[in-house]
């Protein structure tokens, strides 16, 4: 089976660890679940040492009771394979299963995410446990979905991983000649003559001052790809073990949004549905979470995803852990639904009594009360989701704007020795995403391999590597009349991070109609000025010196020796009026907004509520399988916002009907969900 679990409404609940508590506490939990509208429990995530207390001993007694109790209460279970953290006996019996870190230290037992992905012992025992769990519970009435492992991440640099890396390289390159060419290994006398000479890039080999300072970018880039594939191999082994006994129940693992270490695009085809854990810094702008939601939706070609975890109140993993203010939990949850979430789940349902997460937010605190503010907010949201029912399940986002997101470019940009280590991939990508959302456009965040035919506008900021046929496919967007925008530090390297033997921006040069001969990098405190239309905006970090080769100058540098040269250009491309826009510096928000709005307006993609963003209101559209149009209005401001209804519709959450042209008022942190007519 492929796809999302079938449910009558948006599943509501979260991570539940009743194995930590006596069964009389379970009674209280289920009573409180009923009051809060909680119908879905994620169980068994870290249960390995409970389920397999010794190498040849399995004990499912407690898990049997947990699932049977859930079924008796009418609740469904997302059942984990329990393999996310090693049991102590396994680390003792097989020391090689413990990871070796970037500095070359073999770790002892402890923490979590603590296994070597190349360890045969880990692979054998984890898949054995997953298979036993699947065989036992495949037909259990409470089972809703399978949850493989948990929040995969981390890297290992042991001898097992070194051997596995060499095998991965043999398969990728076929010959040492091809590998030497890809890594440009004639530099610094690095030409390899035997596969055994290749070492993982670490603090003991090619790196200095940390993982992003490497002598050979191609080598480090490939090790990050290898790590992604090694952990994916662990997932696939467990998934296969589960599928042997449970061929039809959907399978997922919980991602972590914009998580740098793993390329989720390489994982996406192997999940039945995407799910992720949302823990944004509470001082981050709401568009950061929106970008992550849209990235998760883009993993499965626009299909809905599950919000597998979020905190109902506070986290416990940061130096300072602010509390969600009244109304913020509801707003964040509806924002997830607005961007494609078909489930709203929490970590955690009951607070742990001990260890490092005892202060992490929970629906039910240590005292087990139902009269706390947090519990009341969770219960009220549960009521709203129940009343909304299945309305938004399966709904899609009708976006005509795509934003390209590329892990390879992220890795390559941030480990490049020049022009500037101050340029951060996510920051620049967010600049352009935020500007498009502020203009009222819905945005699909997609991989560079995505089909671009559905889109009129493609935003490709800091697309540092241009791989395969991407340049030709971007030209095709413009040839049919669309617009492609890219920025400074784009198209600098191929898939191996080798510089193109051409003028910058390499294969994007014909589409952009520019040539970049030089670039100036400045400290964070240095600000340049750019004339953009009638306005003057700020720019910083990198200033590329552009020579037009057919492009029109749209923005102009006002300072330094390159004053008067282009900072923003537009190039007419193709016979249908397509355009390529090039932004040669990091503009401030006002400048980015102006450029993106002009691009979107050309295609009629600025939304009817485009001005609402200035008042703190986010808009997002979804279309249900039966064609019903839904419009979410989310007020992220602490003050009331008044808009004008641009279409007739009914607020699903209150039943209030709005006629076109009528004032539409949102409370502070308020949500309106319009079913449009």
TrEMBL record:
It catalyses: Hydrolysis of terminal non-reducing beta-D-galactose residues in beta-D-galactosides. It holds the Pfam family Glyco_hydro_42M. Its EC number is 3.2.1.23. InterPro entries: Beta_galactosidase_C, Beta_galactosidase_Trimer, Class_I_gatase-like, GH, Glyco_hydro_42, Glyco_hydro_42_N, Glyco_hydro_b. Keywords: Glycosidase, Hydrolase. Residues 15-387 form the Glycoside hydrolase family 42 N-terminal domain. Residues 399-605 form the Beta-galactosidase trimerisation domain. Residues 616-675 form the Beta-galactosidase C-terminal domain. CDD domains: A4_beta-galactosidase_middle_domain. Gene3D superfamilies: 3.40.50.880, Glycosidases, Golgi alpha-mannosidase II. The keyword GTP-binding does not apply. Belongs to the glycosyl hydrolase 42 family. This is Beta-galactosidase. It comes from Streptomyces kunmingensis.
């Amino acid at each position: 089976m492929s796809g999302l679990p079938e449910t009558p409404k948006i599943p509501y609940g979260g991570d539940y660890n009743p194995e930590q508590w006596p069964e009389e506490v379970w009674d209280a939990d289920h009573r409180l679940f009923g009051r809060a509208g909680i119908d879905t429990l994620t169980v068994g995530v870290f249960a390995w040492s409970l389920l397999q207390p010794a190498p040849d001993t399995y004990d499912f007694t407690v898990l049997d009771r947990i699932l049977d109790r859930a079924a008796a209460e009418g609740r469904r279970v997302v059942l984990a394979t329990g393999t996310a953290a090693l049991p102590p006996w396994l680390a003792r019996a097989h020391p090689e299963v413990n990871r070796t870190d970037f500095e070359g230290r073999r770790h002892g037992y402890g923490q979590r995410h603590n296994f070597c992905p190349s360890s045969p012992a880990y692979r054998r025992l984890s898949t054995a446990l997953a298979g036993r769990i699947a065989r036992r519970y495949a037909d259990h009435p409470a089972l809703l979905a399978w949850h493989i492992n948990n929040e995969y991440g981390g890297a290992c640099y042991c001898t097992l991983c070194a051997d596995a890396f060499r095998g991965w390289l043999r398969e990728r390159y076929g010959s040492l000649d091809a590998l030497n060419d890809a890594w440009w290994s004639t530099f610094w006398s690095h030409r390899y003559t035997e596969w055994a000479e290749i070492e993982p890039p670490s603090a003991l080999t090619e790196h200095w001052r940390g993982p992003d300072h490497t002598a050979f970018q191609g080598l480090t880039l490939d090790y990050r790809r290898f790590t992604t594939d090694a952990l994916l191999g662990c997932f696939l082994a467990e998934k296969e073990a589960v599928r042997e006994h449970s061929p039809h129940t959907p399978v997922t693992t919980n991602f972590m949004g914009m998580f740098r270490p793993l390329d989720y695009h390489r994982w996406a085809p192997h999940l039945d549905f995407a799910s992720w854990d949302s823990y944004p810094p509470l001082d981050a702008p709401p568009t950061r979470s929106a970008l992550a939601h849209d990235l998760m939706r883009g993993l499965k070609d626009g299909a809905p995803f599950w919000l597998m975890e979020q905190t109902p109140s506070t986290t416990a993993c940061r130096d300072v852990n602010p509390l969600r203010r009244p109304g913020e939990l509801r707003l964040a949850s509806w924002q997830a639904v607005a961007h494609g979430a078909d489930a709203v789940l929490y970590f955690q349902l009951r607070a742990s009594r001990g260890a490092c997460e005892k202060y992490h937010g929970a629906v039910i605190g240590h005292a087990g009360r139902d009269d706390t503010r947090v519990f009341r907010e969770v219960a009220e949201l549960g009521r709203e989701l129940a009343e909304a029912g299945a309305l938004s399940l399966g709904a899609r986002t009708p976006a005509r704007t795509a934003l390209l997101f590329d892990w390879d470019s992220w890795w390559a940009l941030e480990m490049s020795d020049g022009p500037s280590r101050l340029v951060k991939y996510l920051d620049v990508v967010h600049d352009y995403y935020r500007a498009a959302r502020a203009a009222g456009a819905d945005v699909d965040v997609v991989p560079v391999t995505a089909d671009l035919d559905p889109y009129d506008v493609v935003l490709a900021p800091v697309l540092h590597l241009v791989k395969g046929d991407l340049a030709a496919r971007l030209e095709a967007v413009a040839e049919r009349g669309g617009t492609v925008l890219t920025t400074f530090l784009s198209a600098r390297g191929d898939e191996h991070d080798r510089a193109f033997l051409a003028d910058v921006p390499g294969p994007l040069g014909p589409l952009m109609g520019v040539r970049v001969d030089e670039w100036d990098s400045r400290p964070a405190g240095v600000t340049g000025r750019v004339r953009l239309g009638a306005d003057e905006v700020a720019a910083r970090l990198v200033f590329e010196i552009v020579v037009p080769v057919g492009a029109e100058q749209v923005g102009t540098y006002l300072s330094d020796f390159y004053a008067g040269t282009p900072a923003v250009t537009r190039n007419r491309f193709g016979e249908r009026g397509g355009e390529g826009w090039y932004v040669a510096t990091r503009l401030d928000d006002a400048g980015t907004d102006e450029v993106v709005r002009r691009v979107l307006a050309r295609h009629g993609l600025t939304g009817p509520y485009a001005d609402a963003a200035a008042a703190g209101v986010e808009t997002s559209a979804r279309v249900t399988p039966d064609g019903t149009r839904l419009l979410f209005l989310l007020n992220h401001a602490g003050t009331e916002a008044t808009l004008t209804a641009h279409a007739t519709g009914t607020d699903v959450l209150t039943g209030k009907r709005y006629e076109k042209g009528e004032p539409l008022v949102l409370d502070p942190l308020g949500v309106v969900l319009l079913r449009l007519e």
